[in-house]
Task: inverse folding
């Protein structure tokens, strides 16, 4: 491995572009070092705790300071008031810009949207049906339990209840009507 002189490591710069910063650059570095944190706290308070926006506005304030470096260098005693005034104006402009735009709408996560099969609705429905079943005649209740709860066909319900199929159909029809009427009176009370 050959030894490389230190001059070959860095970029080759002409003598006129020395690494020594100009007076304006040195002033801006000093301003950033001295005022970055205080400006950030100031803007965070103005923006009611919005840290990210405050960071962006601090950068915007320093960009404007860079653009006006000659003015700031002329009278260093006015740097702090100038920075805070610019920061306040930048914050006001940012808030006005947000108010001028329509509010951002975020779409809900469709995986978290409640489904139509809400558990509470099911519980309320079960309770209403149980209460209403107690209000209809025992014959109607028996037909409804066989056909809807146990899933029996008309013929199976007729065999289990010991009545003709036509009677099962008739009782099922009138039992559903009676159950609807009983549920209606249950909901109103």
Result:
């Amino acid at each position: 491995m050959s030894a490389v002189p230190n001059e070959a490591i860095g970029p080759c710069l002409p003598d006129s572009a020395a690494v020594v910063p100009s007076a304006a650059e040195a002033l801006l570095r000093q301003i950033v070092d001295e005022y970055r944190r205080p400006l950030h706290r100031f803007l965070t308070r103005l923006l009611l705790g919005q840290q990210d926006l405050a960071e962006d506005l601090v950068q915007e304030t320093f960009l404007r300071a860079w653009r006006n470096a000659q003015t700031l260098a002329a009278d260093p005693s006015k740097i702090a008031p100038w920075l805070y005034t610019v920061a306040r104006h930048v914050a006001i402009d940012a808030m006005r810009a947000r108010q001028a735009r329509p509010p951002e709408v975020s779409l809900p996560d469709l995986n978290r949207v409640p489904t139509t099969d809400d558990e509470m609705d099911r519980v309320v429905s079960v309770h209403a049906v149980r209460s209403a079943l107690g209000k209809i005649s025992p014959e109607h209740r028996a037909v409804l339990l066989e056909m809807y709860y146990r899933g029996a066909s008309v013929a199976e319900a007729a065999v289990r209840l010991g009545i003709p199929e036509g009677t099962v159909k008739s009782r099922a029809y009138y039992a559903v009507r009676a159950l609807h009427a009983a549920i209606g009176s249950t909901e109103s009370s």
